Amino acid sequence: MLLIRCPYCEEERPELEFRHAGEAHIARSSEMTELSDDEFEKFFFVRQNPKGLIFERWRHIHGCGRFFNAARDTVTDKFHLTYKAGEPKPEITLMAPAEPAAWANREPSELNVDMPSKEGGR
Amino acid sequence: MTETFRMAGAGRLTPAKAVRFSFDGTSYQGVAGDTLASALLANGVHLVGRSFKYHRPRGFLSAGAEEPNALVGVHRDAARRTPNVRATVQEIYDGLSAVSQNRWPSLAYDIGEANDLGSPFFSAGFYYKTFMWPKAAWDKVYEPFIRRAAGLGVAPDEPDPDHYSSLYAHCDVLVLGGGAAGIATATAAAASGARVILCDEQAEFGGALRFETGARIDGKPGWDWAQASVANLKGRENVRVLTRTTAFGYYAQNLVGLVERVSDHLATPGDQPRERLWQVRAGKVVIATGAIERHMVFADNDRPGVMLASAARTYLNHYGVAVGRNVGIFTANDSAYAAAFDLKKAGVQIAAIVDLRDDPRGAVIEEARGLGIEVLTGHTVTKTGGRLRVSSIAVAPNAGGAARVIPVDALLMSSGWTPSVHLFSQSRGKVAFDDATQRFLPGQYAQDCVSIGACNGTDTLDAVIEEAYAAGENAVSGTKVLRPAATTSENWTGGMLGAAPGAGPDDTVKAFVDFQNDVTAKDLRQAVREGMRSIEHVKRFTTNGMATDQGKTSNMHGLAIAAETLGKPIPEVGLTTFRAPYTPVTFGAIVGHSRGSLFDPTRRTAMHGFAEKNGAVFEDVGQWKRAWYFPQAGEDMHQAVARETKNVRRSAGIFDASTLGKIEIVGPDAAQFMELLYTNPWAKLEPGRCRYGIMLREDGFIYDDGVVGRLADDRFHVTTTTGGAARVMNHMEDYLQTEFTHLKVYLTSISEQWAVIAVQGPKSREIIAPLVEGIDVSDAALPHMSVREGKICGVPTRLFRMSFTGERGFEINVPADYGEAVMEAVWAEARKHDACLYGTEAMHVLRAEKGYIIVGQETDGTVTPNDAGLDWAIGKKKTDFVGIRGLRRPDLVSGGRKQLVGLKTVDPNVVLEEGAQIVATPGQPMPMKMIGHVTSSYWSPNCGRSIALALVVDGRDKIGERLFVPMPDRVIEVEVTGTVFFEESGERLNG
């Protein structure tokens, strides 16, 4: 079970309290009727589904009830950042994937094993 | 029986504490602290099971959780029959009753053993190839046959009477595994005051120190140091130690699942839970899971009496049990020599040590010879003799040559140690193959954890202790803690992977790699020959490592044999994925208390008791219990519904509509919000009036509907479908919070706050009139589709004049706490006017008679308002609402869409089946062209015939035409009609 930080409650809460709500930063046009078929298709149907960093919406449905945005790595499920609805999409360069894996919060040198070499040996 | 193999003076159990138990009906004596395995071995019992596929006799391979062979049933009573219990893990208690599995008629004479003779036919992939055809035979012949013949234990057929507890825990450091490394790291971490949890799957801490007699830590024998250290940890308030607790799953963000076996080892569990599930969120996790010894792969290596060297040491050094009187050793490393020494010193004869290595060097060789043990280097065991127990081994030089037969009554084997990287791998860490030592070790970490000790490839005891203390310190403050000195005389390195010489290639021998799934070296070679290249394919084709032991002893051998056959180095072939659970976990532990009435909440309306008292039969609608119909004496459902539906149209009926979703929308922009969320125009709806609203998704399809009352300029009382209440609220909140953020509106769910009593029928006004205060209920003052606030029976009400029956009707909303009392009062009045109580079934029939749709029944997420004949509900002048653009999509405006129509069967007595498909002409070649389907179908008592609603392609153009509904036994002819079957004028609504 993931821990997710609600940017409104300002604390980490268990995943059970939240509901996923699809990709973020897809604004509904104030002139919906003016959209061409292609534009509507992009707005409603086309989603990125990336392997890696995704910006997505969550709702703290069993908590404060607020919708918010999150930047998550779909490979590791690591939440890089959560932020309030309406705030600008964060700069992607702030979150270049870290090595080793996204969850490691210690340097490889701090771990008590040697890092595998490129050949796979120790 | 007496324990003839219990060695006086050996082991740590107290012989005075005798325990009686039975196996396959025979009574035995053991000692408190025994496992079922050690107690049976003490009585000379090695044969405990039959193998999965070939029904070969099997004994104990190990002394721990990795056991693939010794699976038994443990029976407490009729409902407590646990299958597939590892005898090496189950502790005995007075009265324990265990039975062997997968044998008939008895363990010693098993008919299924014929499978062993026929084994050339049962090679890898046998089932895939043989039972393909005919397809129909799978269900009736092949699968039942295979399931009976190849199987494990039998699951109990009664509900589980035990209870299971579940709790969450948090700690700074979670230590998985309580051997030397785990104890040391917990000691170091606990010194700082950090919250530490230390768990181990065994009944006592100590890990390999249980048998490693050569270990000395802090000047004491290793085992004594372990017990003293754990006693010290138990005394600390910041430490929790858990025995009999397996870390079975490593999940995201250092969440680790532990299962604690609380009472399976007790003669009288009392009211304790059977097991306890711990979900631990840890700051840091230290993995100290040790290593598992591998067996040797050679012909007939599965006979009872053939076991791991470390297992025999455990049985001797901990349980005081000798596994035989004349024991052979087959090894490729030094560690197995210690087993020979321990046994020899305890007075057991060692027949020979067969060492696969051509020229092994080191102190152990000299020590063996010094003890007078014959050491055959450069030799291999080519096969074993015996039937229900090993009686001899055939030994030959590796290079080939004549075999010599040596009598033994047990054979101990070791091909080296496999680090237990299971939990590390589950944490999404990446393992790396260490060429020098030929093993996979933790490589790249993915979570905040660290591996120490044998599971990290650390081989010497002093290095393990140093590493463990360092990890414990680093996990917390980093402050140095004084380490104890540690030494051992034993060497755990070395060994070999794959098949030993003499294990084949040979089409007749069985050199087992995976004992539990009966996978041999030959099967693995064959898999490669038949084209499997990926280890994942080899695994699935042979089922190597796929049994409940998850290949703890077999995976590395299987991989090495596949790699050798492929001619590739091991790391290029790759390792199969480690998945949770590490060892089998009961459903009971996972489910915990969430069973029976606690499985899912049950929602009851405020008037539930009233309905019960009046004889309602209830149906489940989501989590709700709803009154379905109210049978009177002698009535079945059909008769009750017929009476209720006629009664409503004749005089009146009372219905509990409380489950409808209700949302209050309040604020200066409430009307504007309604305009955006519903297709209808709302701005000009006067306070006190109602409107039927349709809500779309952005794609233009109907999402929900309901009657909305405007209570004031800035206040709407919205109703939703019963099932849609939560998602409509979510949908509204989503738009309000993220798209229409400029609107000043509050949304409040009021579904639970207002109980709703529907009073429907020509007499409805007479029924409520005497009870209502402050509201003029005349048709002129309170016309159809209006709402007033006032009082009824002295309590506040929102009184809706509305109808879901086509009759004059009211829906009385009262605060839920008054629901039952007001219901009683209304019912008392209603009975004066020949009214009835009616349930959801009659409600459905009444609304269908009028052609009113139910979202989710007439609609399925692909129906537009136009499809449903509800174009009138779309505000034509509106410039925006959710779904406005979707409605203009080419597919939604083109012809050929399914439209809602009525269907009347030509034979009025035939009631169509809901979901039945509709075709234009009968007798078409199959597959017929389906042009629609039945969405609702009932017998209509008021029309005196069957009625149905259906979605039919261009249905409104087909009104008056005949269509056909093909059923398995006949074709039903129907006429397409409008959707209103009863009183098309609608005048009855107005009274």
Explained architecture:
- The complex is a heterodimer of chains A (122) and B (991).
- Chain A is 7% helix and 27% strand.
- The longest helix of chain A has 8 residues.
- Chain A has one helix and six strands.
- Chain A has one domain: Folate-binding fold (2-Layer Sandwich).
- The radius of gyration of chain B is 38 Å and the shape is elongated.
- In chain B, 52% of the residues are buried.
- In chain B, α5 packs parallel to α11, α7 runs parallel beside α8 and α18 packs across α23.
- In chain B, a hairpin with a 5-residue loop joins β5 and β6.
- Among the domains of chain B are: 109 residues, Roll (Ubiquitin-like (UB roll)), CATH 3.10.20; 197 residues, FAD/NAD(P)-binding domain (3-Layer(bba) Sandwich); 105 residues, 2-Layer Sandwich (Gyrase A, domain 2); 90 residues, Alpha-Beta Plaits, CATH 3.30.70; 124 residues, Gyrase A, domain 2, CATH 3.30.1360.
- Chain B contains 24 helices and 51 strands.
- Chains A and B meet through α1 of A and β26, β27, α11 and α20 of B.
Ordered list of secondary-structure elements with their pairings:
The complex is a heterodimer of chains A (122) and B (991).
Chain A: E1 3-6, E2 11-14, E3 19-23, H1 37-44, E4 53-59, E5 67-73, E6 79-84
Chain B: E1 18-23, E2 26-31, H1 36-42, E3 49-50, E4 57-58, E5 71-75, E6 81-86, E7 96-99, H2 114-117, H3 126-130, H4 137-149, E8 165-176, H5 180-190, E9 196-199, E10 215-217, E11 220-221, H6 222-234, E12 239-242, E13 245-251, E14 255-261, E15 275-287, E16 291-293, E17 306-308, H7 309-317, E18 326-331, H8 335-345, E19 349-355, H9 363-370, E20 375-377, E21 379-386, E22 390-397, E23 404-407, E24 410-414, E25 417-419, H10 422-426, E26 430-434, E27 439-444, E28 449-451, H11 461-475, E29 486-488, E30 512-514, E31 519-520, H12 521-529, H13 535-542, H14 555-566, H15 570-573, H16 587-591, H17 608-613, E32 617-621, E33 624-629, H18 637-650, E34 653-656, E35 661-666, H19 670-677, E36 690-696, E37 702-712, E38 715-720, H20 725-738, E39 746-749, E40 754-760, H21 764-768, E41 772-773, E42 786-792, E43 795-801, E44 809-815, H22 819-831, E45 836-837, H23 840-849, H24 890-893, E46 898-905, E47 917-919, E48 930-940, E49 945-953, E50 962-966, E51 971-977
Helix pairs in contact in B: 5-6, 5-11, 7-8, 8-9, 12-13, 12-14, 18-23
